[in-house]
Amino acid sequence: MSYMPGFGRLRTAMTATLLALSPTAALSQTPWSSAGPAGHSPMGVMGDHTHGAGEWMASIMYSRVSMSGLRDGSSDVTTDEAWADYRMVPLSMEMDMIMPHLMWAPSDRVTLMAMAMWMDHRMDVRMANDLMAGHGGMPGMPGMDFHNMTHEVSGWADTEVSALVSVYEGERRRSHLHLGVGIPTGSITASDDRMVPEHSRLGYPMQFGSGSWEARPGATFLLQTDRVSWGAQAVGVVRLNENNEGWRRGPEATGNVWAMLRGNAWASPGARLALRRWGNVSGADPALDPTISPENDTDLQGGTRLSGMLALNLQVPTGFLRGHRLNIEGGAPLLESLDGPQMSRDWTVNVGWEYAF
């Protein structure tokens, strides 16, 4: 029986080795952590993490979205094809957004979040000459009854306040719920005074807000391994009332999944898939004639889009800038189906700074 002590030590060593190689065991050794550049999601995901009691985080994000061409379903529609049915057809559009963002945790379980957005919209359109004030005061090319022009408007969009409530934490996993409210601070009456008064109101995509109070529920699940921080999030938007102009944007649902590589104190590359579905407008703004432009048609505002994004999170680990983060993200649609003719998206870039204290 003298072999038994040696066998016992061997069995103990083998058991420890198997446990170390077990994914479940590896997860149980360390709690989930937001430390390092991989501890946060790509910049385009909001409310991806919570904070400890008394902690604050300030951030600001700049985003640009570029759009061009028209699509009906998954098929392209030419400008000339759309022009056969409308007197104003969108050609291209750029949307710039600056979003200040503040988070504060009154307790370990609850993190409060507030976000505002400043928007700048620019849309190039082909327009019939008689839609201009003065009826033809800006003639097009010789022999043409249209010209190209640019609509540009800017202002504050809707504001969101939310509570992020932790529901589980442990074994390198964490999950929390989103309890958000959208406040209708954005304009829904943006106009171009160069056009004849009866058609000066700009279409639904050019308006900054919904004009409605919104419920914004959601949930986020986070998982870490030694090499990767994973995340998944689902968020919805439900408009609770018809706005003062007599219409209501359709419901929205957005799903994100992402992965950020761990292990470097300065930088973490990653990727994200974003799926968004948004509905058509109910009711109608009496100032928008749906026969003038597809941008004015309540039945041509919905769609589905799957986008692929590449991300890079940077963080200063030491020195007087310790903890400051710079996050960069860019991508384009992989699949897109629109209730159209409707403007198609080309690409998106997000750049942001974050600091927790």
Task: Identify the notable features of this structure and list them briefly.
357 residues, mainly beta, Porin, eleven-stranded antiparallel β-barrel, two-stranded antiparallel ribbon, 3 helices, 51% strand, elongated, disordered N terminus
What does this structure look like?
Helices cover about 10% and strands about 50% of the residues. The chain is elongated and about 70 Å long. The strands form two sheets. It has an eleven-stranded antiparallel barrel with strand order 1-3-4-7-8-9-10-12-13-15-16. A two-stranded antiparallel ribbon has the order 11-14. It is mainly beta and about 350 residues long. It folds into two domains: about 1-30; about 35-355, monomeric porin ompg (Porin), CATH 2.40.160.40. A hairpin with a 2-residue loop joins β7 and β8.
Enumerate the spans where pLDDT stays under 50 for 5 or more consecutive residues: 1-7, 13-28
For the secondary structure, the number of strands is 16
- Name the strands of the widest sheet in spatial order: 1-3-4-7-8-9-10-12-13-15-16
CATH topology category name of the largest domain: Porin
Q: What is the assigned CATH homologous superfamily of the largest domain?
A: monomeric porin ompg
Q: Indicate the CATH architecture of the largest domain.
A: Beta Barrel
What is the number of helical segments per DSSP (H or I, 4+ residues)?
3
Task: Give the N-to-C terminal Cα separation.
Answer: 62 Å
How many domains make up the 3D coordinates?
Answer: 2
Mean pLDDT: 90
Task: Give the DSSP E fraction (strand runs of 2 or more residues).
Answer: over 45%
Rounded to the nearest angstrom, the radius of gyration is 25 Å
